């Protein structure tokens, strides 16, 4: 590849923000037609670097070359015009538009003849269907985005980029919501795209996946490149972890059993109906005891989100009962459930976990605004909220210049650590954890797993939903499989494999 012009070359990129240097003298070369993986812990500067490459921010120092030509992107439109597309970890879709409308927004095809000037929806629909079939993305162009799960939303984002003719595709944590079979399918698609000359910049914390799909690997640590163009055949995941965070690769695992006989949460015949009357949660019954982590495995869109919302009181239960701590809470408000000690880590931190414009201490109060240390009597206790936010930042290693910065200023992983710290405060009795380590680097994963293990040992009851099957298997005392809204299997996490669990999630077969 040395004789050809690189697809992208970043030279001595430096970017400073008040109180922090996000990127410092970064050098990165991405050759044409390769899958180049970029690894680094949250807060290492990957997102800032990608925003610079995509025209969302401008570097203070350094330069960018695309196909051998120096460029200075002022907006993402400039980057798109040069064939660079980006699929963000946090999606940028309009919920009230269809898949088709989201994909073509800003790139609408126009009709010919008497239809000149009008949007050619038929042509766009056919092209999207062809692309969906070609890349195995399985997206219906005519459904509203607000009805889609996280995994489906990601596929729409990928379609948006491909629709615009991207030749360099930046993928930020693309496998975070996929089961193993879907990951293999995606990797097959990436190899096909690479064979056709497409260049892929693949950002991931999942080091085994990086080693599986990448042609070359670069590592960023604390804002600078510490390794570039590593050969995946010559490096191990353990070595990558050491380069990223200076420690060994953590593994999710529970040690001695802490499960008690005290049932904290019991669902009995819980049913939730969709607007048309179809059950999206279908007679679900399960128990979670104090000191127990119950895992729930399922492909996105099989009722997990609706089940969580019913437990939290966000969604009405159409049948069945929810018993918490011996009390029937089926008709309790969300606020009452929260005040009774139910903590909640939502699957989408931007949509449901944070107010991005708010400061860290203001976000500390969300969902806990009626309890100390956030209030004193009827008044907001700013001093108490700020003091406790400082504690969370320290104990959960939230990397931030201070507690007065907006949540949007943090990397995704540090935002997640702030949410976990908030929800683990106030001595909760039950934790609903939806994808608690999604988009988190190996160091932060280990920290969150340690906090869950300690809380479990202290008697916390946990319902764990995750797309990371290794996490589900390693961190669960009991493991259920949900398919089309029903619990179809209970497996022993000490014996089941990720492959067998993935098969059970896609068909009501025997996962053992």
TrEMBL record:
The keyword Methyltransferase does not apply. It is a peripheral membrane protein. One of its GO terms (cellular component) is plasma membrane. Gene3D superfamilies: P-loop containing nucleotide triphosphate hydrolases. Residues 8-247, 265-509 form the ABC transporter domain. GO terms for molecular function: ATP binding; ATP hydrolysis activity. Keywords: ATP-binding, Cell membrane, Membrane, Nucleotide-binding, Repeat, Translocase, Transport. SMART domains: AAA. This is ATP-binding cassette domain-containing protein.
């Amino acid at each position: 590849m040395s004789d050809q012009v690189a697809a992208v070359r970043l030279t001595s990129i430096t970017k400073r923000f008040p109180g922090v240097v996000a990127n410092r003298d970064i050098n990165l070369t991405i050759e044409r037609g390769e899958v180049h993986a970029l690894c680094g812990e949250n807060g290492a500067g990957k997102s800032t670097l990608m925003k610079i490459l995509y025209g969302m921010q401008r570097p203070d120092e350094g330069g960018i070359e695309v196909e051998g030509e120096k460029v200075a992107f002022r907006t993402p439109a400039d980057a798109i015009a040069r064939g660079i597309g980006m699929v963000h970890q946090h999606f940028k879709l309009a919920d009230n538009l269809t898949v088709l409308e989201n994909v073509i927004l800003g790139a609408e095809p126009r009709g010919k003849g008497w239809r000149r000037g009008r949007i050619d929806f038929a042509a766009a629909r056919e092209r999207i269907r062809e692309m969906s079939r070609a890349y195995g993305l399985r997206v219906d162009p005519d459904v509203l985005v607000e009805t889609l799960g996280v995994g489906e939303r990601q596929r729409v984002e990928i379609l948006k980029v491909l629709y615009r003719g991207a030749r360099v595709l930046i993928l930020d944590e693309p496998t975070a919501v996929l089961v193993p079979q879907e990951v293999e399918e995606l990797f097959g698609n990436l190899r096909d795209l690479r064979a056709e000359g497409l260049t892929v910049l693949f950002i991931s914390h999942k080091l085994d996946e990086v080693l599986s799909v990448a042609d070359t690997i670069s590592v960023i640590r604390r804002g600078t490149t510490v390794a570039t163009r590593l050969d995946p055949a010559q490096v191990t995941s353990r070595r990558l972890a050491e380069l990223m965070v200076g420690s060994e690769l953590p593994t999710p695992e529970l040690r001695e059993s802490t499960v008690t006989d005290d049932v904290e949460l019991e669902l009995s015949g819980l049913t939730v109906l969709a607007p048309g009357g179809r059950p999206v949660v279908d007679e679900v019954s399960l128990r979670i005891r104090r000191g127990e982590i119950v895992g729930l495995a399922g492909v996105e869109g099989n009722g997990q989100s609706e089940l969580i919302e019913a437990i939290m009181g966000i969604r009405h239960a159409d049948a069945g009962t929810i018993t918490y701590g011996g009390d029937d809470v089926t008709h309790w408000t969300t606020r009452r459930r929260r005040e009774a000690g139910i903590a909640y880590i939502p699957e989408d931190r931007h949509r449901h976990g944070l107010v991005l414009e708010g400061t860290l201490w203001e976000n500390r109060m969300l969902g806990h605004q009626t309890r100390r240390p956030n209030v004193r009597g009827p008044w907001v206790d700013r001093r108490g909220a700020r003091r406790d936010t400082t504690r969370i930042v320290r104990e959960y290693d939230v990397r931030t210049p201070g507690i007065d910065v907006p949540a949007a200023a943090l990397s995704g992983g540090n935002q997640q650590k702030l949410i976990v710290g908030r929800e683990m405060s106030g001595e909760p009795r039950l934790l609903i954890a939806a994808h608690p380590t999604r988009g988190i680097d190996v160091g932060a994963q280990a920290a969150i797993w340690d906090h869950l293990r300690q809380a479990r040992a202290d008697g916390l009851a946990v319902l764990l939903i995750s797309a990371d099957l290794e996490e589900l298997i390693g961190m669960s005392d009991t493991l259920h499989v949900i398919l089309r809204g029903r619990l179809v299997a209970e497996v022993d996490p000490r014996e089941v494999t990720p492959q067998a669990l993935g098969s059970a999630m896609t068909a009501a077969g025997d996962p053992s």
